[in-house]
Design goal:
- There is one protein chain.
- The chain is an alpha+beta fold.
- The protein has 13 helices and 37 strands.
- Strands 6, 7, 8, 9, 12, 13, 15, 16, 20 and 21 form a ten-stranded antiparallel sheet that branches. An eight-stranded parallel β-barrel has the order 22-23-24-27-28-29-30-31, surrounded by five helices. A six-stranded antiparallel sheet has the order 32-33-34-37-35-36.
- Helix 7 runs parallel beside helix 8 and helix 11 runs parallel beside helix 12.
- It binds alpha-D-galactopyranose.
Amino acid sequence: MNPVSYDPHHRIWALNARNSSYVLRLDDGDDAPRQLHWGPHLTPEQALTTPPLPPPGNSFAGTARGREEYPTEAGASYGPAALLIRFADGSRGVEWQYLNHTVDGGHLAIRWRDRRQPLEIVLHYRVYEDSDVVERWAELRHTGTSADDAPLTLHRVDSAAWSLPHRPDYRISHVIGAWGRETQLRRTPLPYAELVLTSRRGVTGHDTNPWVMLDAGDATEDTGEVWSSALAWSGSWHFTAWRAQDDQVRWSGGAGHDGLTWRLRPGERWQTPVFAGLYSADGFGGTSRAWHTYQAGHVLPQPDELRPVVYNSWEATGFDVDEAGQMRLAALAAGVGAELFVMDDGWFGARRDDTAGLGDWTSNPKAFPDGLHPLIDEVHRLGMRFGLWVEPEMVNPDSDLYRRHPDWVLHMPSRERTTLRNQLVLNFARPDVAAWAHAWLNRLVTDHAIDFLKWDMNRPFSEAGWPERGEDADLLWFEHVRQVYAVMDRLRADHPHLRIEACAGGGGRADLGVLARTDQVWTSDNTDAVDRIAIQHGYSQLYPARTMGAWVTDCPNPFTGRTVPLRFRFHIAMAGALGLGGDLTRWTPDELAEAACLVARYKDIRPVVQHGLQYRLDGDGVQYAHGDRTVVIAWRVAPAHGDPTPPLRLRGLDPAARYRDERTGLLHHGAVLMHHGLPLDLSAGDHASMVIRLNAVGQG
Ligand code: GLA
C-alpha cells in the first residue's frame, strides 16, 4: 500500500500507516481541509462515506461543520482555534485556497494561500511503514514581497488538530506531577468543556507532560481503541481538548502558551514542532508499546546502543566535590560494575552551594588543582566512561558571567528579576548567548575526554523579556528552545561519541523534542524506590525504558526518609536504565558485594529491558520481551497480614510455547502464564521483590 494516496476527483488524501489510516479532504466550495477518518485502515472510497455531522440547526450554532483539520477563527465557528492570527487590517481567520501538494515517500505537504491576505499555509504529514504514528506539523509564510508590507501578528500557531469519531463517552489520560513527583497517571471522563493542559514555564514542566490519550471509556491495558498524541517540544506548550455538547471531540496543541504575541514579516516563515498522533486498537499497553517502538525507530539518536550503568555523585557528595573524593567514589563504583562515572554539580567556578558560580564553567582550582584531567584519566583507567554535570542555560547573580553580562538574562526593564534556587535564566534566544554556551561546551568536550553530559535546567522562566526585541520579545519562548536544541545538535555532530542526559530538576524536560537529541532522561530527583513505582508507571505510558534513568541510592531515602532493602531498590531501578547514586563509601562490604551481583544481573537482563517490548502487568509487576527472552520484575510493597499473593498474569507470550525459568529450571506453558499467571515466590514482609527470567524453549 502506498503510504500516501490522493484522489483528485474527490480531493481526498489518505495516509496509510502500519495498521491505521488518516484521511482528509478539501471542502467543496471553499477548499478548507477537513478530517474524514482517523482509525483502522479505510480506503479513500470508504472514508468518503463516513457520516457527516448534522448541519447546524439554528443561527446560534454557527456555520462550523465539525472535524476541522486546522481550525482558525474563520466564519461563524466558535470552537477553540489552532491558529490565532491577525492581519494588518484587523481581519482574523483564514479563507483557504488550495494551491498544490507534494508527496515524498511518506511525507505529504499540502499548500494553501489565504484568498485575500499575504499568507501561505502548509500542513505537513509523515507516516512510516513500521509505525502507526502520524507526524504532523504546520508552516506559515508571509508572502508579502515588499519590506513595507505590514507584518502578520501571531497569537497561537498549533502544530495540528485531531478529531475523533463519535463515541458516547470519551475519557482522557494524562500525567500530573511536581518536582520529585513526576508523571502521575490520571484517567478521567472528558468534561463538556475546553480542557487546557499547558506549561507556561519555558520548559516542558514537572506538573504535566505534553501528551494525551483519549479512549471511549472502554479501553483496558490490552484492548480497546486509544487515540493519542505527543508534542516534540521542550518549551512552553498548550493543548486544548474540546468536547462540545453534541459530543464532537477534538484537540489541538503546539508550542507556546496563551497570551504570547509575535509577528511574521514579509518573506518570513514560521514552522511548528511535530505533534505526533497515534491510533491503536490494542489498549493502553499497545499504545505505549507503539510509542516506544516509534521513538526507537524514528526519534532517539542512538537507539541500538545499550545505556551504560551510570554512577552519579550527586546524592553522595552534593556540592562538596574534589578530586580525591570523586576518585574514591569512582573506584567503588567501578568495583560494583558501573560503566559511566558522572561528576555532578559543584566542580566549577565558586560553586560550593547553590548561591554562586553558575555561569563560570572552569574547574575549581582548589578542588581540582591540576584541572579535571587526573580524575578523568583515573575514571578511564578504571574502565568507565566519564560524564559531567552542566547547566548551560543558567547563571547565579553571584558569578563572574553575570557581573560581566547582566543583560544576558531574561528580564524586563521595569521589573525585578525573580531568582529561583538563587539563579536566573540566560536568554538563549540571543545569538551571542547561544554562541557563548556552544563555545565553552565545545571547548570543555574538546579539551577533556568527556563522554557524557548531564544537561540540567533547574528553574522555569520569569520576567521573560528581551528588551532589544521590543514588541517581538515573546519570540524568546520559541527561540530559546530552538537554540538549546541547536547547541546540543552541534555538540553531537562534532563529537560523535558524546552522549547527553536530559534533566530539569529530574523529569522537568522529558518530551519527544529533547529525546531526539539526548540518550536518556533523569526521570526524577526522587530516588525512593516506592515512590518510583508510580513515577515509572506514568513515564512508561509514552517513553521507553531505555531512556528512563533510575538510580539506586542510600537509605533512609533523602526524599521520604523511607528505608527499604537494597535488593528492592535495585529491582525497581532495573526496570529502566539502571544507575547508582548512593554514597558508596558508607556501604558495607556486604552491601557492595550484593550491589555487584545485582549490577551483573542487570547487565544480563539489560538487552531485554532496554530493547524489548514492555508490558505493564495487572498487580505489581512489569514485563519485557525480546526475542526468546522474557524478564518479569515483580514486587509487593506492604501487604497486610493474610493478603494473598496472586499469580502474576503475563502478556504478549506465545501461548503455544514453553518458557523455562532460568533460576529454577521450571518449565511453564505460555498459555498458562498468560491465562492463569506465574506463581510468585515473594517472601513475607514489606518490600519483597524478584526478577524472573524466562526463556522460550520451543512449542509443546
Ligand atoms: C538538579 C538535578 C539533580 C542534581 C542537582 C544539582 O536538581 O535534578 O540530579 O544534578 O540539580 O544541583
